[in-house]
């Protein structure tokens, strides 16, 4: 049995309080999960059956080792700390679908070993680059072969419901998860889906009929009693899993175009200016290489791939679902493991959510990068959303570790993309200039380098985070 060989301070994970079976703590580069005696029978079955070993070997479950137990617990396991924790409302359609299929694969593997998945929460899945990985080691228990699957409703609310809305209404519907962090209400989803989905046998069963049954048995005491008394054939649950897998696999990303999904086919860069921009970003990244970089406004990930040459992990964030979908598909196609795609609206980044506003951390809390690039986004934030330059600078400051580097592309008023943006707006942005940008960002960053792009009116600024705000 391994032991801890360092004295790194342990921080409780605020979102782990709901599970009485154990708690989660983070350290610098690892995570500890305590296991209480109430879960002992199930954990021994998970280990002795060989399920855990196979799940880790197949890349379904986050690897772990058992260490000497911490105080006040039965056992303790240690796992590597992931580079970034994303939430379901930050996933594109393809990520949602792969997370759902991973959850079903683990459920099917558990059934083969006399176990069952007691918790089908989407939050139990994380993306390590393009790879979905199940991280909750205490989500399995010994199966009663004649009992129903208690997590069936949760799977429908966490996976099938958002996928159906993203498929039949709009990919942006995935963000509804931030309003209902315990899963989308099936009655609401049923009412929002188009009538033609009622002719889909699988969606009719798992969404529409399921929603009606919930309404019919809305008295929780009666429905709980009925569920406890229900005895089923042991093949019902495996058949249910097969049906859910077919439901998920049948859902495909709708074909559509968005303004930014085809951004690189509609820009005002010449070939020389585009190459110059890549060269400058590559050089800055090579001079400040490290562990974790973030590409703000990544689109389909052209510059994320440049950063991936110099950083262990790159977070590629963009608000356009189609762009992130293309990025994710490209990572899978090219077998790139170190870029993590997320859907993020910089004008309204993910806030702290859940119980007491502390169960799910904000994007800024989770993203503490060594290096950030914000290319061709400043004009959208200032001119499009009306956010003052100093507010933009302050937020970018919050995303970086001490002495972190920011590469910022300034797009001036005379740029054709800005003119298009201002076509229906009155220019009220008197301080929007390169000088105004330098002044606003200078309160939070030291300006190390300033380069105008070849054959372009745009300027690339390389900035270092100040130790003290406002000290120039």
Could you describe the 3D structure shown?
The structure is a single chain. This protein is of the alpha/beta class. The chain folds into three domains: 70 residues; 163 residues; 203 residues, Vaccinia Virus protein VP39 (Rossmann fold, 3-Layer(aba) Sandwich), CATH 3.40.50. The strands form four sheets. The protein has a seven-stranded mixed beta sheet, sandwiched between helices. A five-stranded antiparallel beta sheet has the order 1-2-3-5-4, with no helix packed on it. Helix 3 packs antiparallel against helix 8. The chain is globular and about 70 Å long. It starts with 10 loop residues before the first strand and ends in a 7-residue tail after the last strand. The mean pLDDT is 92.
Biggest sheet record: 7 strands, mixed
CATH evolutionary superfamily of the largest domain? Vaccinia Virus protein VP39
For the record, the CATH class of the largest domain is: Alpha Beta
What spatial form do the alpha-carbon principal axes imply?
Answer: globular
Low-pLDDT windows of residues: none
Strand order of the largest sheet: 12-11-10-13-14-16-15
Average pLDDT for all residues? 92
């Amino acid at each position: 049995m391994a032991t801890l060989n360092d004295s790194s301070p342990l921080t409780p994970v605020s979102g782990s309080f709901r599970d009485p079976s154990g708690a989660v703590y983070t350290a610098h580069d690892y995570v500890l999960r305590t296991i209480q005696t109430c879960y002992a029978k199930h954990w021994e079955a998970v280990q002795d059956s060989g399920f855990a070993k196979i799940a880790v070997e197949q890349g379904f479950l986050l690897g772990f080792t058992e260490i000497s137990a911490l105080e006040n617990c039965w056992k303790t396991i240690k796992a590597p700390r992931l580079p970034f924790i994303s939430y379901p409302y930050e996933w594109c359609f393809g990520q949602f679908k792969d997370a759902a299929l991973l959850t079903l694969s683990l459920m099917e593997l558990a059934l083969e070993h006399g176990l069952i998945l007691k918790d089908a929460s989407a939050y139990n899945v994380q993306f390590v680059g393009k790879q979905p990985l199940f991280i909750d080691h205490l989500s399995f228990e010994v199966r009663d072969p004649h009992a129903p699957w208690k997590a069936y409703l949760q799977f429908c609310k966490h996976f099938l419901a958002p996928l159906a809305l993203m498929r039949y209404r709009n990919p942006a519907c995935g963000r509804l998860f931030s309003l209902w962090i315990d899963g989308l209400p099936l009655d609401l989803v049923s009412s929002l889906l188009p009538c033609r989905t009622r002719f889909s046998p699988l969606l009719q069963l798992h969404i529409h009929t399921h929603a009606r049954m919930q309404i019919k048995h809305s008295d929780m005491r009666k429905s709980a009693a009925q569920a406890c008394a229900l005895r089923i054939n042991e093949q019902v649950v495996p058949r249910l899993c097969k049906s859910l897998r077919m439901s998920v696999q049948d859902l495909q990303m709708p074909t559509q175009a968005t303004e930014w999904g085809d951004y690189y086919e509609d820009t005002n860069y010449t070939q020389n200016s585009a190459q110059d921009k890549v060269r400058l970003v590559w050089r800055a990244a090579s001079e400040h290489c490290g562990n974790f970089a973030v590409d703000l406004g990544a689109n389909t990930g052209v510059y994320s791939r440049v950063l991936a040459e110099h950083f262990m992990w790159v977070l590629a964030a963009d608000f356009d679902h189609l762009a992130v979908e293309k990025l994710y598909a490209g990572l899978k196609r090219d077998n790139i493991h170190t870029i993590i795609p997320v859907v993020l609206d910089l004008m309204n980044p993910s806030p702290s959510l859940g119980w007491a506003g502390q169960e799910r951390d904000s994007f800024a809390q989770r993203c503490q990068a060594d290096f950030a690039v914000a290319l061709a986004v400043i004009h959208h934030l200032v001119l499009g959303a009306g956010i003052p330059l100093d507010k933009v600078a302050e937020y970018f400051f919050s995303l970086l570790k001490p002495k972190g580097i920011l590469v910022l592309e300034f797009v001036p008023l005379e740029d054709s993309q800005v003119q298009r943006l201002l076509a229906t707006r009155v220019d009220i942005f008197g301080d929007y200039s390169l000088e105004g940008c330098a002044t606003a960002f200078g309160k939070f960053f030291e300006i190390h380098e300033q380069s105008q792009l070849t054959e372009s009116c745009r300027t690339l600024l390389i900035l270092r985070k100040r130790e003290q705000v406002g000290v120039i």
